[in-house]
Design brief:
By secondary structure, the chain is of the alpha/beta class. The protein folds into two domains: about 1-335, Rossmann fold; about 340-435, GMP Synthetase, Chain A, domain 3 (2-Layer Sandwich), CATH 3.30.300.30. It is about 35% helix and about 25% strand. The chain has 13 helices and 19 strands. Helix 9 crosses helix 10 (about 195-205) and helix 10 runs parallel beside helix 11. It starts with a helix and ends in a 5-residue tail after the last strand. Bound molecules: 5'-O-[hydroxy(phenylacetyl)phosphoryl]adenosine. The site of 5'-O-[hydroxy(phenylacetyl)phosphoryl]adenosine (DLL) has 21 residues, from helix 8, strand 7, strand 8, strand 12 and strand 13.
Amino acid sequence: MNTTTKAASAGSYFDAATETMPRDALQDLQFDRLRATLRNAHDNVELHRRRLDQAGVVAEEVRTLEDLRRIPFTYKADLRDTYPFGMFARPLKEVARIHASSGTTGKATVVGYTQTDIENWAALMARSMHAAGARSGDIIHNSYGYGLFTGGLGAHYGAERLGATVVPMSGGSTERQIALIMDLGANILCATPSYTLAMAEVAEQQGVDLRKSQLRVGIFGAEPWSHAMRVEIEERLALKAIDIYGLSEIMGPGVACECPAQAGLHGWEDHFLFEVLDPETQAPVPEGHAGELVITTLTKQALPMLRYRTRDITRVTTERCDCGRTHLRILRITGRSDDMLIIRGVNVYPSQIEAVLVGRPMIAPHYQLLVERQGTLDHVTIEVEVQYGVDAQAFATIARDVKHHVKSMVGISTDVVVKQPGEIPRSQGKAVRVRDLRPKE
Ligand code: DLL
């Protein structure tokens, strides 16, 4: 019987034996599972076999971090090149479910799960939700999109496993969402942070005070969000806003999740091996320094991933958390390296600009960045929206204020366009923050 099953039969999703395991024991477990993963990948996936053989990596001999670093990387492009099922380590008759992420260019990335993968995923989502503060008996309103996106079904199975009552709402129909949150007495909200703010806005227009709902915890993720956004959400909904991370190539939501200490997301190291590397040199960065998160799956059957280059930029710490959990903490994902803008030599993530905008007087927490090429230089226009009731005479002052603060806090010169309430498109899932109009090279 594995530990998660034990936890399930005990009716609790705090699995102390696993979640507070001493780090050396955790590392031993990781290397045992890594060898099994390497065997699975080597024996069942052509692409992995070729690369591992070329690099001379033999599963049985991988025992140290140096050995780990000899394992070749896997990229999103590998999934596209082997579309749709070329990286599956199991025949389709053993694949119980498919998910896919659309991606901005070309083909979707298709991922697959055996029944055991789905059970592990549900258990990790239940663990994440429990860490966030959700409990058996809670009513969980799930606004993550159902369908090929992993958010909806991932949270759904986790909530059921936790022993909660799920309201499988999906995204959209915002007015109805709000009525159901109020009428059914949801305690936990699962949604993207941007859609949560869109819901808060509609609720205010309807004269509904979400602060008076039964909501206690929000489990928010699937997109980068700043501390300022967290403060805004916590104020407008009167709940504790918890950050959850995941990606379909690795599993879906529940790869990492915050506990109420809100001091980083516990990355579940019994199922995943995390590295933070300098994206250019590929060398490990010292603990606490920013780099690209690289993840190896340790228990996935249908789609084992070796050193997957997530493109997500973050920092990690292995210091023990106040909650007692020993699993490392991923500190807020700043953004994806693909989303990084280089504005006159300064590297900028949209979330850095968000941190300046959200919470500023007179503007609403909805924005878009327009990036254009002017001659040889990149140029950013920030589109912000005023709060309801702000007089048009204030627009020029707001624009000056935003421009000044972005310059002094992020270090880039921008143009600022101030828009009327409702003019910036609202998200129903992942927000589109950047409109990149630069010519494609
Ligand atoms: O977004 C899975 C998910 C669903 C996570 C619901 C959390 C909640 P994908 O669609 O494959 O999967 O997108 C994964 O989204 O590589 C990050 O760039 C970004 N992302 C996910 N969670 C966070 C987060 C889901 N908490 C990509 N903070 C990832 C910042 C996040 N970025």
